[in-house]
Every structure is written in structure tokens, then in C-alpha cells.
Amino acid sequence: MVVVFFGTPQFAVPSLGHLLASSHRVCGVVTQPDRPRGRGQKITDAPVKSVALQHGVPVVQPARLRDPEFTATLRASKPDLGVVVAYGQLIPEDVLQIPRLGMINVHASLLPKYRGAAPVHRAVIAGERETGVTIMRVVKALDAGAMLARATRPIGADETSEDVERDLAETGARLLVDVIDRMEHGPLAEEPQDASASTYASKLTKEEGLIDWTLPARAIHDRVRGLHPWPHAYGYLDGMRVILLKTRVEGEETTAEPGTLVASSRDVITVAAGDGRLIAIEHLQPEGRRPMQAREFLAGRPIAPGTRFTGR
Question: Which long-range contacts (CB under 8 A, 24 or more apart) does 237-243 make?
Fold first, then answer.
């Protein structure tokens, strides 16, 4: 079939790659306009655009999907199907109707739970033990279309959002091509979503990274995992912002106030959480410096037990 692909970030790259390697033809890639990226804020190609150009696939980057020139170009390519993977913008109804068989989406959750922009991160932050990927119809309402296929995946107790998302990107890519292969031979069974069971996975903000030490130890650990690789969980130690990169929940208990450094050893810094349990910080990053292990941090900045993380 002739497929037009809508996608922008790294999560969408495996889906595009599997499509390019399949028996179907990608007639074009639609991706977000170029924007400043990285620490230097230089204008660079997004991951999907880079892959498309490497394979000689035409790329369009409309500022508005309702632009008449864009819709005319899309109609002229006569796509059988549209595929949307983390494109980053809602698709208007008139564009949805251009492909002969409509549009389908690769969504990184077990719908109807975690509709929205950050399904993997919200699932990890919530301490979910399982997630997955859903291939669904794209409709006007956000992530509300009928489901065509799903694949599940456990979430390890110490896995980060980055770990889970990377794996789901590959799983979703394989499932996508399987669905398209089957669509080529006729309509597929479509399962409507139960809207009453849906939750909304809102976009992450930098402000969410500030740790509330009164939370239970497991909730703090899940937040550290869920906010990796961005915006990261952090706290303030003697006025210095410290990013927490890797933690674990300890079995011991303490009567110390939440946020208090209970002990520091060669490998970890242990901090009291709100439920009387301890969080062990293994890797961290002081503001303006590189990531380091706890032992390296302590070698340059000894910390006395009783010191507390603060809100600012």
C-alpha cells in the first residue's frame, strides 16, 4: 500500500524504518518544522526527518496542516493509508479523510489508559507494573479511536521511562507493519475504547521535577525513573540544585524527617522519605557539572548526616 507517515521524534524512527523495509511504499513524510535543539539550541533536523532524507523520501514540514498547499500535495500523492507516530500535533478532520483507508496511530500505552502526550512517563511515575503499545484509528478526539491491535510489556521496578519507551518504539513498529499487512487484505476488527476507563497523560514540565520528600520512598523512586531522561527529578542541597539520576528503595526504616540525609557511604547517599523508609541515591548530577556516582560526589563535597534537602 501507499503510506504517508506523520512523525517527528526518536520514538517514531523504528516505525518509519520498519515501514521502509516492508513491502509497502512510503510516499512522503510529514514532520514538524525545524526547531532549535540540544544545549546549543542549534537548528537541526528532527530524527524522523533525518531518516527520511537518508532514504530519499520526500519530506514536508507544514506550519499548519490546514494549509491549502500542503493538503493539495497530500491529495496528489494518493495515499492508501496515513500513519501517525508521535507527530506532535492533532490532525484536522479534513486531513484525516485524505487517505483512502484513513489514518492509524502507534500509541505507547494500553489504551484507553494514558491518552495524551506522555503515556510512558506517566505510567512509570504512577508505579505501573505493565504497559504496552496500541495501534488505533486516528479520530478528531485525542487518542480516542478504535483499537486495531495491542501488545503488552512489563515495567521493571528500576526501569526508567527511557528504557521502556525505547523498547515500546520497536514493539510498536513491528505491530504497525503487521496491522498494515493485514489491512491490505481487508478490513480488520476494531474494538471501541471504553472512555470511562481513560486517563490523561499530560505533557511533562520542569517544575514537576522538584521532589516532595514527604512522599513514600517508592513514589519518589518512581518519579526519579519516570522523569528520566527529561526533565529529571531534583532537590536542593545547601542551596545547590542536585539532579537525581539513579536511586533505589532501601529496606531499612528511619525516624528522621523527610528529606534528611541519614547516612553517606562509599557508594550511596541515603535520604529519609515520608513513609519512614530510605531512598538510596546512587548517581546524581550537581548543577553545572557532569553526572557522577555518589562516591565521586562525596569525595569533592562531604555531607554531614542531618543535612536536609530543601524546596529551594
Answer: 237/303, 237/307, 237/309, 237/310, 238/307, 240/286, 240/287, 241/286, 241/287, 242/284, 242/285, 242/286, 242/287, 242/309, 243/209, 243/284, 243/285, 243/286, 243/287, 243/291
